[in-house]
Amino acid sequence: ASSHPQMEEGPLLMGSNCRAKGAAPGFKVAILGAAGGIGQPLALLMKMNPLVSVLHLYDVVNTPGVTADISHMDTGAVRGFLGQPQLENALTGMDLVIIPAGVPRKPGMTRDDLFNINAGIARTLCEGIAKCCPKAIVNVISNPVNSTVPIAAEVFKKAGTYDPKRLLGVTTLDVVRANTFVGEVLGLDPREVNVPVIGGHAGVTILPLLSQVNPACSFTSEEVNHLTSRIQNGGTEVVEAKAGAGSATLSMAYAAAKFADACLRGLRGDAGIVECSYVASQVTDLPFFASKVRLGRSGVEEILPLGPLNEFERAGLEKAKKELAQSIQKGVSFINK
Ligand code: NAD
Ligand code: LMR
């Protein structure tokens, strides 16, 4: 038996009274890359989510320690999985799989510079999902998201399991940042602000729709330029501040937990769950695009129209589409080369 009771060989560790009641009702969620900078705080937040009954933590390093630590929280069950031989057990039976596995940027790098390492990681993990939990909802965080989501789609197509409604690129951090920065400019509590952010998740592909902010408001052109640039470069702002120690982890874990919770509420059948996400889409002529989607029992149940764009946003959309088309093609070619 393992010296770590909550690791794969051991019994499933429950939060409380498990002998009397068995597993609590709820969803089974796996985090792949769970010992990383995003993975650890995300594991913490998902362990606190009352919709989660069982949490699986998978990584190629350090899951025994992270799992032992998280297992002492008096919430649902958690189990750890270490290394490729345990990937299949980590995935079997999951309703939702969240993927923050992969290397982060250092100053001076673009997200696309991560492609060479992270594309292969995304492929391996998605092959596991296709085999062990083909019906799970998949939330892709690993960068470059503009390419890793198309990679996941191609892996699932090859395996014959692709359901575009169940594959979602996580762009929530762009919305979270946009809400924060717009709240600062307007003097509003960011919790009361909602900014749609469309396109993708890198540089100019991140397109905040400042003409559609809720509550309705107006900005000067200086404010539009400042806000658009700060939202597009929010990731770089953190990468530079961390000075070589990685990219956003805490705000990302918050954003990923918020998005995962929305997916779980959709799965439960709650009405009116709308989030921005990078998904297979016909809202533009590109095969993938981030925009507002309605989440439900089968994942993405509806892609909402972009709504009216002003001239500045229409110009931004053209720039975004140009870069996105290349990133999508790069991901598709990686699997089909
Ligand atoms: P990190 O290096 O701190 O953690 C990554 C974890 O992935 C590590 O624990 C590592 O062991 C693990 N890993 C590596 N290969 C693996 C494999 N084959 N299987 C399972 N796990 C594996 O990095 P981080 O800061 O947590 O960032 C992770 C990724 O998320 C990066 O690619 C980063 O660019 C991306 N990211 C995306 C967003 C977004 O908005 N979508 C935001 C922030 C970061
Ligand atoms: C972010 O937006 O913070 C992430 O994509 C990480 C990065 O490399 O900027």
TrEMBL record:
<dbReference type="GO" id="GO:0006099">
    <property type="term" value="P:tricarboxylic acid cycle"/>
</dbReference>
<dbReference type="InterPro" id="IPR001236">
    <property type="entry name" value="Lactate/malate_DH_N"/>
</dbReference>
<feature type="binding site">
    <location>
        <begin position="33"/>
        <end position="39"/>
    </location>
    <ligand>
        <name>NAD(+)</name>
    </ligand>
</feature>
<dbReference type="GO" id="GO:0009507">
    <property type="term" value="C:chloroplast"/>
</dbReference>
<dbReference type="GO" id="GO:0006108">
    <property type="term" value="P:malate metabolic process"/>
</dbReference>
<feature type="domain" description="Lactate/malate dehydrogenase C-terminal">
    <location>
        <begin position="171"/>
        <end position="334"/>
    </location>
</feature>
<keyword id="KW-0816">Tricarboxylic acid cycle</keyword>
<dbReference type="InterPro" id="IPR010097">
    <property type="entry name" value="Malate_DH_type1"/>
</dbReference>
<dbReference type="GO" id="GO:0006097">
    <property type="term" value="P:glyoxylate cycle"/>
</dbReference>
<feature type="active site" description="Proton acceptor">
    <location>
        <position position="201"/>
    </location>
</feature>
<dbReference type="InterPro" id="IPR001252">
    <property type="entry name" value="Malate_DH_AS"/>
</dbReference>
<dbReference type="GO" id="GO:0030060">
    <property type="term" value="F:L-malate dehydrogenase (NAD+) activity"/>
</dbReference>
<feature type="binding site">
    <location>
        <begin position="141"/>
        <end position="143"/>
    </location>
    <ligand>
        <name>NAD(+)</name>
    </ligand>
</feature>
<feature type="binding site">
    <location>
        <position position="177"/>
    </location>
    <ligand>
        <name>substrate</name>
    </ligand>
</feature>
<dbReference type="InterPro" id="IPR015955">
    <property type="entry name" value="Lactate_DH/Glyco_Ohase_4_C"/>
</dbReference>
<keyword id="KW-0560">Oxidoreductase</keyword>
<feature type="binding site">
    <location>
        <position position="59"/>
    </location>
    <ligand>
        <name>NAD(+)</name>
    </ligand>
</feature>
<dbReference type="InterPro" id="IPR036291">
    <property type="entry name" value="NAD(P)-bd_dom_sf"/>
</dbReference>
<comment type="similarity">
    <text>Belongs to the LDH/MDH superfamily. MDH type 1 family.</text>
</comment>
<dbReference type="Pfam" id="PF00056">
    <property type="entry name" value="Ldh_1_N"/>
</dbReference>
<keyword id="KW-0329">Glyoxylate bypass</keyword>
<keyword id="KW-0520">NAD</keyword>
<feature type="binding site">
    <location>
        <position position="105"/>
    </location>
    <ligand>
        <name>substrate</name>
    </ligand>
</feature>
<dbReference type="InterPro" id="IPR022383">
    <property type="entry name" value="Lactate/malate_DH_C"/>
</dbReference>
<feature type="binding site">
    <location>
        <position position="118"/>
    </location>
    <ligand>
        <name>NAD(+)</name>
    </ligand>
</feature>
<dbReference type="Pfam" id="PF02866">
    <property type="entry name" value="Ldh_1_C"/>
</dbReference>
<dbReference type="GO" id="GO:0005777">
    <property type="term" value="C:peroxisome"/>
</dbReference>
<feature type="binding site">
    <location>
        <position position="143"/>
    </location>
    <ligand>
        <name>substrate</name>
    </ligand>
</feature>
<feature type="binding site">
    <location>
        <position position="111"/>
    </location>
    <ligand>
        <name>substrate</name>
    </ligand>
</feature>
<feature type="domain" description="Lactate/malate dehydrogenase N-terminal">
    <location>
        <begin position="28"/>
        <end position="169"/>
    </location>
</feature>
<dbReference type="InterPro" id="IPR001557">
    <property type="entry name" value="L-lactate/malate_DH"/>
</dbReference>
<protein>
    <recommendedName>
        <fullName>Malate dehydrogenase</fullName>
        <ecNumber>1.1.1.37</ecNumber>
    </recommendedName>
</protein>
<comment type="subunit">
    <text>Homodimer.</text>
</comment>
<feature type="binding site">
    <location>
        <position position="252"/>
    </location>
    <ligand>
        <name>NAD(+)</name>
    </ligand>
</feature>
<keyword id="KW-0576">Peroxisome</keyword>
